[in-house]
Target: plant cystathionine gamma-synthase
Amino acid sequence: MSANQHLKSDKVAGSGSWPVEEQGFDTLLVHGGVKPDPVTGAIITPIYQSTTYVQESIDLYCAKGYSYTRSANPTVTVLEQKLAAIENGADATVYATGMAATTTAISTFMNAGDHAIITDCSYGGTNRACRVFFTRLGMEFTFVDMRDLKNVEDAIKPNTKLVLSESPANPTLTLTDLSALSALTKAKGLVHVCDNTFATAHIMRPIDHGADVTLISTTKFVDGHNMTVGGALVAATKEISDKLRFTQNILGNNMSPQIAFYQLQTVKTMSLRIEKQSSTALKIATFLESHPAVEKVMYPGLASFPQKALADKLHRNNVHGSMLWFEVRGGTANGRQLMDTVSRPWSLCENLGASESIITCPAVMTHANMLKEDRLKVGITDGFVRVSCGIEDADDLLRALKIALDALPL
Model:
């Protein structure tokens, strides 16, 4: 039997597609964008680790959609289609990192002399890119508290082109009324990009609330295993996505097929992980609220959360995510002692949204590049403890936290 006799025909059993609107969210996580390989019938999309693609003729150049992997790659395309489906967008582009996605969005919608409005509390890398890098190119940025949309409206100038929101914000978890913000940006002819990394499409889809582009660090919940880094921009329209793809092709910051392959597998279990992580986060937040060593705890699932009504309005499935933060009594010294001494299964490191539970000191780690006065203005003190709950047994996490909290000098 020849080797070719082992190969499937182009018609593979079960390879047909059905309309996206007929698929549930968890089905999209597994099957969105994916078809069995037409050559072998492989159920998992192969890694097309090829730089270039042989063309049939000059007249049919790129007829199959692929010419050079910087422009497009079959493995990467499937991940883009899956993310577009789960975020309810028209199209998506994926990037080497979350910051590559962020800088591509800004580069696409702004030119020298243009102005953008950014949430005053965002990922530290976003803050630094706007404040330090893009200002060198002649762009202008205003950072405002988006909990009150009058702040956004008051900040709009004749040269404003872009509004970049982040909800929940990293790390304070402050929320923005995305539907109201999107209505404002549309009325003013502005592009609204919303960073949805913390919430994920399982909890909230910004495009459903009128955003033009959803920004995702796929390093977080899409990967969820501390294994890869990546980013994505999901656009509400194909026209917007084409603009983003044009910029991406120029900058050459696309995701590699190997990383796309990994994230195509990890994203399948995103809902399962987030449900478990959210359940654990609520248990931990409730415990922290009752512990005498804790000064303050913030989690959107708590009745005490200042924006609880908005959280319930925005977040689907009565789920509020894996992220919370708290401060301990005694200030910075006690906060840092806790982060230095809490034992496994907790890990002191950067990143979030992973299977492992992580404690982070934003003032030193994720937000160290913000100006100190700006950090303190939004509430990120030197003893601010950011928590990303993993999928371990909640009782083990609670036990380790209790031991570390009980040992603090109060």
